């Protein structure tokens, strides 16, 4: 069975500081992993995805995530937070089929 | 492509009324998903279709909820009768499984308020 755990439902960072959002997964098969972002009153948008190619995945808006099989993790990072990064972030795992399993989300606040 | 299109964006209704939410997936996508998002429960999968056929409706909360996909370009989620606890944002998403991987594309959601 597949599942995702996001540690920290709320994260606050200062503008210009490192952003680190944590995601651990459980999967019985080699997974596909995703990070989605949701801005207020909008749907979820894909930030980046891991498909078993490079373990370090670069996404939009300067975000990246590293797949670490030994730690079953797929943490999202950005070197320097911007005010526009304030949003809800969701980690998701797919069993390479039709099913997607989402985490409970992490709300990112950026402090000016 | 215009993306996944949902209507209405906002719906306010009274308890006991019927609510119908609509979704147009991205053309050519063969999977369609309905999700519900609330503060308490987060993002919940209600039902999904493959090639217009419902595959898994185990997430549908109760018999008051029903979903249909009469053709590849249209799906509805109906709540009858509606209750205040149904208040949530309902998202439709579609994907193309022949792509690798089949990432989900979400609509902007339908915000339902049941008074």
Provide structural commentary:
The complex is a heterodimer of chains A (112) and B (115). In chain A, strand 7 and strand 8 form a beta hairpin. Chain A contains no helices and eleven strands. Chain A has 112 residues and is mainly beta. The termini of chain A are far apart. In chain A, 36% of the residues are buried. The mean pLDDT of chain A is 91. In chain A, the strands form two sheets. In chain A, strands 2, 4, 5, 9, 10 and 11 form a six-stranded mixed β-sheet that branches. Chain A has a five-stranded antiparallel β-sheet with strand order 1-3-8-7-6, with no helix packed on it. With 115 residues, chain B is mostly beta strands. Helix content of chain B is 0%, strand content 54%. Chain B has strands at 5-7, 10-13, 19-24, 31-38, 42-50, 53-56, 65-71, 74-79, 88-95, 105-106, 110-114. The radius of gyration of chain B is 13 Å and the shape is globular. The relative contact order of chain B is 0.33. Classes of the chains: A mainly beta (112), B mainly beta (115). Chain A binds chain B through residues 32, 34, 36, 41-46, 49, 51, 90, 92, 94, 96-98, 100, 102, 104-105, and chain B through 4, 31, 33, 42-43, 45, 48, 50, 55, 91, 93, 95, 97, 100-109, 111.
Number of helices of chain B: 0
Question: Low-confidence spans of chain A: pLDDT under 50, at least 5 residues?
Answer: none
Report, as a whole number of angstroms, the end-to-end distance of chain B: 36 Å
The dominant shape of chain A is: globular
End-to-end span of chain A in angstroms?
A: 41 Å
Oligomeric status? heterodimer
The radius of gyration over CA of chain A amounts to 13 Å
Strand percent estimate of chain B? over 45%
Rg over CA atoms of chain B? 13 Å
